[in-house]
Hints:
By secondary structure, the chain is α/β, with parallel strands linked by helices. 35% of the residues lie in helices and 13% in strands.
Amino acid sequence: MKPFITIKELKEKLQNKECTPQEIKQFYLDRIKQYDSELNSIIETFNEDNSPKKDDGILGGIPFVHKDNISMKGKATTSGSNILKKYKATYNSTAINRMSEAGAESLGRANMDEFAMGSTGEFSAYGITKNPWDHSRTPGGSSSGSASAVAAGLVPFSLGSETGGSVRMPAAFCGLVGLYPTFGLHSRNGVIAFTSSNDQVGPLTKTVYDNALVTSALAGKDPMDSTSLQVEPKDYTKKLNGKLPENLTIGIIKDAINNDSIDPEIATAFDESIKQLEKLGAKTKIIEIPHLKDGIAVYFIASRAEAASNLARFDGSLYGNRVEDAAALQEMYTKTRHDGFGVEVKRRIITGNYALSSAHQDDFYEQANHVRSMIRAEFLKAFEEVDLLISPTTPTFPFKLGELIDDPITMYLADYFLVPNCVIGTPALSLPCGYSQKGLPIGLQFLGPRLSEELIYQVAYAFEQSTDHHLRNPKGYE
């Protein structure tokens, strides 16, 4: 079996009886054993038989790994944190159940920035994760292990989670396809919360087709999640015919052109992508979203406020670790959280509590929600003029490991094009659109209105199939 084989190709091999699910599983377990000691993308591998319920499902016999904040019954679910290292999930998340119902089997837990807080994969209690394209660089975060494992061909797909770019940034940095779905399309049940109004599970794959297939298994109403949308399951691969819809108009986000903060090589690749879409028949139009620049500020305040609230439960009284030498209850709370949380998590909790304090709530949290509504209105107006929007996924190439560890503001600013749609709950998909002179991947993202995933996949697939960007793989993993 060749490395970097896609889900679609694996399904064909299974249907033609060229291999068995057990042979596929062993192939990937062997690759993990051979290559992951250098990457540190997978925290724990499951060697026992976790046989899926439906071998004839749409992902029947296909293995994957899931991010360490997605609960799997009987397995450790630590969210990359010391404070949960002893915790084992007592139930399956809906995402794991739906993968099982589709016939897929998880081979392990993927490394991640602690509690999904970080953009580099360096904020994990299990050590840093490396980028297969260049081991001196980050794979992006917080779904660092999920992306690194797929990029190196250790699994054909993975599940990550995104609150403000945590699937699409790693997808761009690792040459993959990554989706942030409409908020509520994928269930959050059993996913350890970071920011409840943004969090969504998202697939990372080698191709657009594979991504659409995984979303077909994930999407749909979940009675266990009050935020999930009343939508019926759908085959998101149905319209992947390599053609754009007639009279398609794509909006080019004005901030994405003539912008000195975007690396010149990324700007060039983005310009070539626009020309390719026009060649395929799309009409293009420059669209200004005045408050796009405020998306990071809104996300900064809202995400930290919600994180401070969500992480208040981790104090040693119910979940995970507890210090043994505390003389009183308050000391137990304080020491447990001091020893259990890492520096980035503490930074965000402190910021969030400050924003939620009675003296500052109106100045920060309420103001952030007001600007959020303004961003939503501007996107709605944009989608009255165009069908989809495009921008570079990130303005920069993958950071050098250690480069931004003490510069969180610069790290946050890398999310410039990623967080605006997350704060209003609309979908976006990143896919490869080129490579730098040094061979580093470049990401292009399509953004759409609520529940436009089918259209996004159709357009992204047509673009992908008209180029060869998705056919390239990192060296050293053949």
